[in-house]
Every structure is written in structure tokens, then in C-alpha cells.
Write a structure and sequence with these properties.
It is a single chain. This protein is of the alpha+beta class and about 80 residues long. The chain has one domain. About 45% of the residues lie in helices and about 20% in strands. Strands 1-4 form a two-stranded antiparallel ribbon. A two-stranded antiparallel sheet has the order 2-3. A hairpin with a 4-residue loop joins strand 2 and strand 3. Helix 1 runs antiparallel to helix 2. It starts with 5 loop residues before the first helix and ends with a helix.
């Protein structure tokens, strides 16, 4: 029997994080659901800019992990196990 496709897992996990972040952002103004937007952010505060005169390259990344994102990832993992 062939194993499961891990690209599907990656896409489901990304979808879970995005949808979880969206839900967390929507619920931040509701007092009893505001805990869903609680999390940690890490990355560059200001982007790194490299200027070569005729070419300018900007590097930057900022990742925010919230409780809703973690719940979304867990739901995506559960959905992957079911398919």
C-alpha cells in the first residue's frame, strides 16, 4: 500500500495556520474569545536592506504564532489522519 502524500499535509498545515490566524484576528475584540489571539511574534523588526546601487534587495520575515493558529494546525493534522 502506498503511503500518504506529505504535500497534502503541508498544504493542510498551512491552511490551518492561515485560517487559525484569521479566526484569532476576528475574535480579538470579543472578551471571552480574546485568548485565541494570544501568542508570540518573532522575526526582524525592521527589514534588512541591501543596496547595490542599481539593485536593492529587501529581506524580512515576521512570524506570529497564536493559540488559534495552533488549534488550526491541530485540526489540519486531524483532518490529514482521517483522509
Amino acid at each position: 500500500m502506498r503511503g500518504k502524500n506529505y504535500w497534502v499535509l503541508l498544504l493542510l498545515m498551512l491552511a490551518g495556520v492561515v485560517i487559525g490566524g484569521f479566526v484569532g484576528d476576528l475574535t480579538k475584540t470579543i472578551p471571552w474569545l480574546s485568548w485565541l489571539n494570544t501568542g508570540q511574534s518573532f522575526g526582524f523588526d525592521a527589514p534588512l536592506i541591501v543596496n547595490f546601487g542599481i539593485l536593492v534587495i529587501t529581506f524580512g520575515i515576521n512570524i506570529k504564532i497564536t493559540m488559534a493558529g495552533i488549534i488550526g494546525m491541530a485540526a489540519a493534522l486531524a483532518a490529514y489522519r482521517l483522509i
